[in-house]
Model the fold of this input.
Amino acid sequence: MAASRPLQVRLSGIGGQGLILSGRMLAQACMTGGSYVAQSQSYEPTSRGGVSRSDLVVSEDNSAYPLVTHLDALVILDQSAVGISEAIIDTDTVIVVDDDLVPKPPGGALHVTRLPLIDEARRLRNPRVANVISLAALVILAELCPFEALEDAVERLTPAKFRVRNMDALRVGEKLAQRQAA
Done:
């Protein structure tokens, strides 16, 4: 029996939004289920106006090519990050964008879900948890891995002093996605 096509995911925005950490959390959650994960990243500091991204290729076996060539799932947390993914998305790509910071998401007949990610993070009194909110929403909407595996990964990879904040953010993202799916 042939292995299925690898799942390809990108988390994108600007430097300082925690996207590299979110990528590590998602990679850990996927590996918990026995999948192989190749992760790559690009980071430019916010001070330089830089775009940041974390890419994952998730497969049942060692993938022959560890870099994304087509996206199955995508998060965009800043307008400046829209262009870096447009060539590798299509109508099957599950796209989650912040409805405030991404006023012009990728166009066309695409499946774009606009969510108040930054607003919800501010409601939690910490705009820096938008990455975890978006990750939770994407995992549910794109069915990337069992949500329990993501919970475990977030709990294990978050420093103790931020753990409660990130777990609260995870719950907010879960609720946003569940409302969207209903």
